Every structure is written in C-alpha cells, then in structure tokens.
Amino acid sequence: MVTILQIGAGGVGGVVAHKMAMNRESFSRIILASRTLDKCKAIADSIREKGLGGIEIDSVNADSVESVVALIEKYRPKLVVNVALPYQDLSIMEACLRTKTHYLDTANYEHPDSAHFEYKEQWAYDTRYKQAGIFALLGSGFDPGVTNVFCAYAQKHYFDEIHSIDILDCNAGDHGYAFATNFNPEINLREVSSKARYWVKGDSLGHSVLSDKLAILRSPTAALTSSNLLVGSLENADFSSQSLECQESQKDSQKADSSHCETSARSRGNPQNIESKSLVSSTDLALNPDLQQDTIYRKFEREEQHWRAEVEAKAEAVTANQHNRNSKIFDEKGAFWSEQARSYLSGNDAACERTIAPLSQNEVSLEKAEFPYAGGQWRDIAPLALMKEWDYPEVGVKNSYLLYHEELESLIRNIKGLRKIRFFMTFGESYLTHMKCLENIGFLRIDEVRHKGSKIVPIEVLKTLLPDPASLASRTKGQTHIGCYMKGVKDGKERTIYIYNICDHEACYREVNAQGVSYTTGVPAMIGAKLICENKWGLNAPKNVAFTQSLQELENSLCDSQDRLVSAEFSAQPTNLKQNLHSLDSNNTESKKVDSTPCHSSEASSLEFYNAERLKLNADMPKGGEYQGIDNAINLAEAVVGSQQSRNSKILNEKCDFSQLPHLSSKAEFQGAGVWNMEQNDPDPFMCELNKQGLPYVVCEIESNGNLKVLEDGRESLKNKLKSPL
C-alpha cells in the first residue's frame, strides 16, 4: 500500500488529486492537506462524485517546518507532493529531510519578497538528501517539467548535440473577462513584470548570431519556406536580418506595420539611436535577429510616475536604518530593498540583490546586464521588451514575448552542446494594455502604502479584486500549446525538431473541473509521483543514459571523443552521457585539459571521467550542491580522489575538497538519492505516461525544404491503443 501526502489544494492541487484517484494502482492511499480545510473538502467531494473513491483530508501550515513534520509523521507517506505556493518549497523540503521522506514539487523556490527564480537554495539540499537516502524531484509541472523532459527525450533519440532551444508557451484560451490571470494573480503579475533573461555560451556569441539568421523567423512551418532566400542573404555582405523579418512579416501577416518595420531597420543600423530610445542593447538585438521590440506593452510607457518620490524616500530611509543599526542581516535586507525600490521606478517587481539593474529608460545600463553562468552568460533585458510572432501548429499566430523561466537554469547544465536557450510566452493586446495601466498607477507595487490610516500592499488588493483563477475553469474555451523548438546536429547533419502538446480547456474541465493551465501542471506532477511510487524514477532507478547503457560502450565513447574534447570549440560529451559536460568555459585552458592515460574498460575510470567533469561544471554550486547530478556522490567521488592522488591533477586538487563532505552509505537504498531535475532522469517512461494520462505529445521535424514531418504522434498511438481488442 503506497501512501501519498499532497500539500496544496488550489487549481493545480485539484488536478493532481483527481488524477491520482484515477490511478489507484499506484496511489492506494491519498491524503490532501492545505491551510484551508474547506478547499480540501471540495476536492474530495468532487473526486467522490466522479466515482473515483475517497481521499483523506487534513490541515497544515506549509510555512511552518514543524507543522509539516507533524503531518508527515502522522501519515508516514512514501512521497510528499508539494503543489503549495513556491514560497513554501524550502519549509516542505526541510520537513521531508527531517522525516526522511521523498519530495516532489512543480516550481522552484521563490522568495516572498521578490519574483526571484533560482534553484540554488534547493540544490543546496542535495548532499543532505543523499546522506538521508531520499529523493527529491524538482519542477515536475509542464514548464518547468514536461519541457525539460521534451529536451531530454530529443537529446536521447534525435540529436547528438542540441545547440539551441526555444521553449514556447501559448495559452490561446478565452475566459470572457477583460482582465484576469490563470493562476495566483500576485505570482503571475510579478513574474511577467520581471526582467527578461536568456542564455548564450560566452565564447559562441558570433556563432549564435549566424545560426539565428538561418533560424525560424515566424514559426516552425514558415522558417525554411524561403530557404533559398535565407542562404542567399547570408552570402550577401549587406544582409540585414531585420529587413528579412520585414519581408516575412509583410508576406505572412496582414497586421504587420511596415512603417514600424522600416523604422526598426533604420534603427538597427544605428546602435546609438537604438540605445537612446529603447531598453534593448545593440548586442541583444544582434543576438536575437529573429525578434523585434515590443510596440504593444510600451504603447502607454511613461517616464514620470506619480509615486516615484514616495519610493525614493523609502529607499533612503532603509539606507539610513542600515547604517544606524550596523547589522549584517539588516545590511543585506536593506541593500535588497534599496534595489527593489529602484526597480519600482521602472515597474519591475522582481528585484534581487545580486542581479537586479535599474530598468527605466533613463537609468538602464544596456551593455552591463550580463552575468556569467555555466560557461556562458545570462543576458538580461527589460520586461516584455522583445517579442515575435509564432505560428503555433493547430492554434495559429500569436504574439510571443521573451521572458525568464526557471527550467532554463537546469537545462543549461544538463543538455549537451547547448549554445543558446530562450523562453517565450504569449500575451494578447488586452492583457498587456491592462497590465501596463496597472503598472503606471502603482497597482503592481509590492511595498506597503498608507490608506485611510492603515497599510495595504497594492498588488494584494489587486489580487482581491481580480477573479479567483479557479473560477475561470468553467468559462474558459480554447487550447494551450506548449513545446520545445530545438536545433542541433545528428550524425554530422543539422537538424530541427519541434515537440509539443495541445490541451483543450473544455475537455480538462469535463475531466477534472479545471482549466488547461492547471491541468498541464497537475498531470505531470501526478506522473512524476507515479514513476517514483513505481520505482521507475528515484532510488535504484537510472538517472541518465550514462548509468543505463553498458560501461563498455561508455568507455568506447570516451576513447573516441578524447581528441575532440581537447580541440573542439565546444567540449564534446560522449553520446551516451546525458549530463552536461559541455558548459565549461572553453576559453579556460585548464578546462580543456584531458588526461592522456589510456582508456580502461572499467567502471572506475568511466565514472571518474564523468564525475570530474561534472564537479568542474558545479564549481559555482552552493555548499551542499557540489554533487548535484552525480549518483551516490561520495562513493563516486572516492574514485576521483584516488585518481587525483596518482595523477597529481592541479585542477581536481583546486576544485574538489571531498574531506569536508559527510560520509554516505554505499548500501543500495542510497543509490539515486539526492536532489534531481526532470531532465536528469530517463525520459522514456515519463513520455509514455504523457500519452496515457491526457497530455499526448507530437514530435515534428522541420526538413531542409521547409516541410514539417510528423515523426511521432501520441494522440494516434492512444487512439490505436483504445481501438485494439483486450
């Protein structure tokens, strides 16, 4: 009998509970807990009314580690499924650690005071989870989640290397209201109004620009329709990617504004003119020639804001208190709030002491918004500043805006050969216009303001005024379309693969009383839990191809690729190693060194090579996260230490201090323990479950002639299975 404890009873929580009840062979006992018991009861009643049996309910304060610990000890579940608020990830992870219980969530930790995406605080639990012999699965939603698995699946079956990834999130649904959000309004609006971010490999900026000139200009289906024109243009010294976009826009969209396009083209030829009028640097425009600057969200942009003086005064007060108290903790908090105050002036609520930059038109530092990461660099731009029109198969053309999303952070570390990765989300003109209006009048502020003698937080008031996202389910029509558009190499030839899912809002409501956005997050959470309960993911389960294929094959791959590792611009990773070994700074000669000792067909030498490369990649990990991505870290690290002593490797001596880490048991139950992201697991069983559980996927290849060829269609597979006799 497998017992599951689910914490969280919102829209996503309702989907997870319903889908678990539909899979009783994997979830025999389901406990649903939330701060609000009435929400749990409503979900339990719905499950019973649908003939899916009963579930148990309880109350919990997910902000309190002690409250969660008491709940876990009461029921002793195999797994805790966290679909509460992202603010509560760390308290629930800590409770799971104390009780030695497996953990799963759908979104990474977010600080209550900022929309700050970062996995590091969760990755820091890796060593302690390994020591406890428990498994944590991060980001088992759709994006992050399914999109990570799409990339891992493509890497395993369709690519030797993936060079670029665009993650595309389209909600083409209509709920009938002038303005509403599909999930928690406070979180949604803070995330959307945050600075955008994408990643490029630092030593391949020139390559990224070149490859993007051959990349999709409007959509997968339209990308190579004019392939001869594209190639011919590249050979032309006067080639202008912006003018090419204008040609495509004029041909493919009657809504295109040719005068705006011509203005953009002229501006692109004059970087000083661009930077004096926009929040996007000439470097970012060059790195993204397929994108254009927004003209919808910025339509009502205003430099002056009536509450500027108030926010500046708060920032000054914080600074004064900071000096007066002379407290390290307060210094850090004060520094944070002063940066956050400056961000208010630009309408950007995702302040962060490490990465935030003033983003108003007068204050933006266009060429300094870059931060090193995993051998490449993050490029930060103003919120909703860059967009493009994508033609989503089966949905149509939608305005898609460059945003930041947390799965980028882990995919960079775990996808082989990656040079560039971006995330896009669709927004309609009505949504953007309402949001800009709210920003201009100060309703997106997350600081306290005085109102009739009391203090209120504007965005919390807005949350109260907007429709409850759960109430949208019964009235939402249309579809969601989420996919991964990937370009790379297979057998020495360039290849473009697009994997996506279509989800119908009304069908979701009929099945589980939820709209498609909640459904596409909740179903993958259930699938991740199902694989853990069935021991297909988690302890004693393979995490990646490196540990599922024969060590002899691994050894041969290492031998064959040694020379390429030394000379290649991008460190080549053996085909059967799923973990990311490419993201080392290839400008660093130390990172290019490869030992000349002959390959030996032994487990120790194979894992030694892999672990050494992974440890170098994890050099920027927080304490406790140094071995994230390594199975049974201590035992494998001991093999590296032995080799380190014999080889006297300066790199390993400097990078690795194994003596400071706690001892881990070599017992089988510790194999596979630790904190893992979705793409670090074998993607095949997850993809199979997607087809079974209501989120079938489609794999397409965009051929050199521009045709879109369907390679896999999970919907057809499901239909055939249902038609076949028992």
In brief:
The protein is α/β, with parallel strands linked by helices and 726 residues long.
Question: Your description of this structure?
Answer:
41% of the residues lie in helices and 17% in strands. It contains 28 helices and 21 strands. Helix 2 links the parallel strand 2 (29-34) and strand 3. Helix 3 packs across helix 4 and helix 22 packs across helix 24. The protein is globular. The two termini are 27 Å apart.
Question: Could you give the topology of this structure?
Answer:
Layout: E1 3-7, H1 11-21, E2 29-34, H2 37-49, E3 56-59, H3 65-75, E4 79-82, H4 89-99, E5 102-105, H5 120-123, H6 126-132, E6 135-138, H7 146-157, E7 161-171, H8 185-192, E8 196-201, H9 205-213, H10 227-235, H11 241-252, H12 258-268, H13 271-277, H14 282-287, E9 292-293, H15 308-325, H16 328-344, E10 370-373, E11 376-381, E12 386-392, E13 396-403, H17 407-414, E14 420-426, H18 429-441, E15 449-451, E16 454-456, H19 458-465, E17 479-490, E18 493-504, H20 505-512, H21 516-533, H22 551-567, H23 589-592, H24 603-617, H25 633-647, H26 650-655, E19 674-677, H27 683-693, E20 697-702, E21 708-713, H28 714-723
Parallel strand pairs: 1-2, 1-4, 2-3, 4-5, 5-6, 6-19, 7-14
Antiparallel strand pairs: 7-17, 8-11, 8-14, 9-12, 10-11, 12-13, 13-14, 15-16, 17-18, 18-20, 20-21
Protein structure class: alpha/beta
Distance between the termini: 27 Å
* Major sheet attributes: 12 strands, mixed
Taking pLDDT < 50 over at least 5 consecutive residues as the criterion, the unreliable ranges are 206-276, 326-367, 546-601, 643-666
